[in-house]
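Q: Hi! First time doing this. I have a protein sequence and I read that you can turn it into a structure. Is that right? Here it is:
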Amino acid sequence: MTPTPQHPHLPDISFDGGDLDCGNGLLLLIRKHIDPMARGGLLEIRSTEISVDEDLPAWCRMTGNELLSFTKEGKQRSFLVAKGRYAERKHSTLPAQTSHGGVQRVEVKPMTQWPSPAPAPRILPLSVMGIGSWPRPRWMLQAMHEHMEGRLDEATFQRTADDAVRLAVAAQSRAGVHVMTDGEQRRDSYSSFVASRLDNCQLIPLTDLLPLVDDPEEFARELRALDVPAGDVRHPAVFGPLGRSKGIAVHEAEFTRSLTALPVKVALPGPYLLTRTMWMECISDRAYANREDLAKDVVRILREEIACLLAAGVALVQLDEPVLSEVVFSGPATQRSFMCGALSAKSDTPIELAFARDLVNAVTEGFPLERLALHMCRGNWTADESAALAGDYRPLASTLSALRVGTVLLELCTPRAGEMEILKSLPERFRIGVGACNQKHAHVESVDSIMAHAERAIKLFGAERVLLTPDCGFATFADNPVNSEATAEAKLAALAQAAQRLRERHHMACE
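A: Yes, that's right. Below is the predicted 3D structure, encoded as structure tokens:
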């Protein structure tokens, strides 16, 4: 774009990014200012960094925002960007505002006194539960986007989400589950949602990260091959010391418990997953010297949250660590695994597995094992099985065995997970949540086939140790569910019917 003497319109908001480039924090500032604006709103971006001349127009093209004009006087540059298209502008309602850049940081105040666990209903053998996510109604998705973009206030968003949770709970109740989740209705995805709850963390669209990779075009091709909707998926970015001034999921748990007498399960992204996704050099290193330092705060925050969840009567806290499979199954042939984040780096496999093990055990230390679980799968961002990772549990068995949790919930229905017999070596202290239906398939498994699959698990582990679940959630990413609500309910109902027959066959209590 050729510079013009002056902009054709006055901006609604103006900020100065100084000498930051797009790969070193400028995009975070742009996102901070542009997200709350209405479509057609005008943002002026002032910069003295020469690389922005090329990078900002490319970012506008990728994100669907319109670059209206560009002025230049010496080193000082000024870009006028419309959110979306300028033609969408209805009227100018904002007086011109000026910001001096920097993202406001919140002072971190660790919890000084932890609550004690409250009693919770017991989870019986052969109980059925969802892994976590449930397809969101269209109106819930709209509310989620409006809330993330600052166009829907917190109270209205939570009331809308309450209605969506009621529907998800009702569907699971009709299906006959024994352990309830809220369907993760308030979350944009199973992991990145924490950025909207934590201090000094911000959600940015995946497309904003393209300027940070060595080859943006190749990265974009990889995302398309993985069937990842980069324009819809957001990624957590850390710009200061992480804090937890409000709960991550306690409000979810309290509302769910008000709707059911069943044991309630709450899923949290695990510490290795969060550290891998949040650590991005050139952004995170402004707050932390290295990812190990970041991990210390991640562990602290998760421990605070678990303490509060158990005090709220949550029966089972599930740590999601799907990236464990990425560590051992991804490689040159499989390219990048989206589930671990756009730019996350890793070391050699043994080092990563040990790092993950130590982080999980640091988080769970001192909490009651029977109320802690870990879930892993091989990717759940698309219904296309060929785009997900494949490999049996052999290279993960020793790591899983060393984890300080009472339950492991594992993908075991899809052929990509290999043979169940490999898990025979897991310690007897573990309950095994056996994936007994494939959440990605449109067809509903028969009760007989589920029973046959479960009987194999019972023969290996004993009926007292077996729980039944889908392989993963039905809508890990809110905008990209892998199945419909009706199919999800039917699959859980089939699991519940199979569990009832198995309990009768093995003379096990139902209450």
